[in-house]
């Protein structure tokens, strides 16, 4: 029987989650504080820990670090009701397996637990670093805290252990090669080669021999045989960037390779079986290229099995601040500078600027700032003029939109009654409907939950909250 420890200062959450998990066959212990939770973990040696981010005394991140020192192998799932992206990132970096937002349904919890068991089973089968003490290959970190990018990271973790071809899509500068590195580093191929090829950077007449290799005397100057990049990446991952630039005749050969995992060198007569994972990327609209005959439909669908879309920086919220701090620290160390940081006004301008060149443009901008800075706080006067002008322009557009919205609201919305409080009003209505459903079903929780359109687990929490008991 799997053992679970729940650490949360909210009694309703502890009780309802305990009841739900015990109904599923788990042995469950609950604790109100991080300190008591550590003692319980040392005592029962659980398989799984649910840990709240916000706790009295030591916060959840600090307790997580203590748990990992005590038992590095225990799986920890973070719970938060605050939508705090930075805390979520810190928790994942400190060793949390994943997180779940409050309020949650029991079905969501069980799905998350199932993903834990699946991951651990695969790790055991593959002899992963967790079980053998091996170190994964280093790769640049993906700095993020926004929901769109956290979803991308979750998708990367999910598909990494498969052998399926992956297509990464996104605007230029969004970090497609970084995502490909992450896929490789999270997979069982991590100890094998990772080879990247920019399909648009090599002349079309050389691409075939570069990818597939060639035999001796295959063409003038081929005085010896040479392995192609697909062969060199055998056992590992090959990253084909700008796949939309691949000529149609090479697309045919790549499609054949993806279908039977065999290749034939230029000038050769022998097929060679190659085990390599193909990750492709593009900033072009491949579907439109298919419609215009510039990209093969069959190759598109072969690559499009698992598409991953990288959002532009302008859609990643405060990631621009996290990335700015990261680049400032790394570039300052590289260039032997001691820059205190950015003024708040600079960060506000960074948030408003649309960054058409995405993360690459941001990094180049900060590198320029670091080079020209004399160890002083970075202020708006040091920013490139075009960034300041465009950021202020975007700010003006948003202000105009807000003015229009406010005018519309003033025309249509009635004045609020005195002492109105939205949360109290919502709680009053919620309690009223719950009470009505319970009376109608004679306090049958399952039937009441069905009437209300929520789960029994969710209704238990609310009954405990409003009526002080659970039936």
TrEMBL record:
Entry keyword Transcription: yes
Molecular function terms, GO-annotated: ATP binding; DNA-binding transcription factor activity; sequence-specific DNA binding
SUPFAM superfamilies reported for this sequence: CheY-like (SSF52172), Homeodomain-like (SSF46689), P-loop containing nucleoside triphosphate hydrolases (SSF52540)
GO biological-process terms attached to the record: phosphorelay signal transduction system
All residue ranges annotated as the Response regulatory domain in the record: 3-117
Keywords: ATP-binding, Nucleotide-binding, Phosphoprotein, Transcription, Transcription regulation
Domain Sigma-54 factor interaction stretches: 142-371
Cross-referenced InterPro entries: AAA+_ATPase, AAA_lid_NorR, CheY-like_superfamily, Homeodomain-like_sf, HTH_AraC, HTH_Fis, P-loop_NTPase, Sig_transdc_resp-reg_receiver
Modified residues (4-aspartylphosphate): 52
Identification of the protein by name: Fis family transcriptional regulator
Organism the protein comes from: Paenibacillus naphthalenovorans
């Amino acid at each position: 029987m799997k053992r679970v420890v729940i650490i949360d200062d909210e009694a309703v959450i502890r009780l309802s989650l305990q009841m739900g998990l015990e109904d599923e066959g788990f042995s469950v212990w609950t604790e109100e504080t991080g300190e008591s939770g550590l003692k319980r973990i040392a005592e029962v040696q659980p398989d799984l820990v649910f840990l709240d981010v916000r706790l009295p005394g030591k916060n959840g991140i600090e307790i997580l670090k203590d748990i990992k020192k005590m038992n590095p192998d225990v799986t920890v799932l973070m719970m938060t009701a605050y939508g705090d992206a930075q805390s979520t990132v810190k928790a994942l970096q400190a060793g949390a397996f994943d997180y779940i937002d409050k309020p949650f349904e029991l079905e969501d919890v069980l799905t998350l637990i199932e993903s834990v068991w699946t991951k651990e089973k695969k790790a055991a089968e593959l002899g992963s670093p967790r079980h053998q003490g091996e170190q994964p290959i280093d790769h640049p970190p993906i700095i993020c805290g926004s929901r769109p990018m956290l979803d991308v990271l979750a998708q990367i973790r999910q598909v990494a252990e498969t052998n399926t071809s992956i297509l990464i899509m996104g605007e230029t500068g969004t970090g497609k090669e970084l995502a490909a590195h992450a896929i490789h580093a999270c997979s069982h191929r991590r100890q094998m080669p990772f080879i990247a090829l920019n399909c648009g950077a090599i002349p079309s007449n050389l691409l075939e021999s570069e990818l597939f290799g060639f035999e001796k005397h295959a063409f003038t100057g081929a005085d010896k045989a040479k392995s192609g990049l697909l062969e060199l990446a055998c056992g590992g991952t090959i990253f084909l960037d700008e796949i939309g630039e691949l000529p149609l005749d090479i697309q045919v050969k790549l499609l054949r390779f993806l279908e039977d995992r065999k290749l034939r060198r230029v000038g050769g007569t022998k097929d060679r079986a190659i085990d390599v994972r193909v990750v492709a990327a593009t900033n072009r609209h491949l579907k439109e290229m298919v419609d215009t005959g510039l990209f093969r439909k069959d190759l598109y669908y072969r690559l499009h099995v698992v598409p991953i879309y990288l959002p532009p920086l302008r859609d990643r919220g405060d990631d621009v601040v996290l990335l700015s701090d990261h680049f400032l620290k790394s570039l300052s160390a590289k260039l032997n500078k001691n820059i205190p940081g950015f003024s708040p006004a600079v960060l506000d301008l960074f948030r408003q600027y649309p960054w058409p060149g995405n993360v690459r443009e941001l990094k180049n901008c900060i590198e320029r700032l670091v080079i020209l800075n004399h160890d002083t706080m970075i202020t708006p006067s040091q920013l490139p003029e075009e960034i300041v002008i465009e950021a202020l322009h975007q700010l003006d557009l948003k202000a105009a939109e807000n003015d229009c919205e406010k005018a519309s609201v003033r025309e249509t919305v009635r004045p609020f009654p005195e002492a109105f409080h939205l949360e109290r009003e919502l709680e009053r209505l919620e309690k009223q409907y719950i009470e009505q459903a319970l009376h109608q079903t004679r306090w049958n929780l399952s039937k009441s939950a069905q009437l209300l359109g929520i789960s029994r687990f969710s209704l238990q929490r609310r009954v405990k909250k409003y009526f002080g008991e659970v039936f």
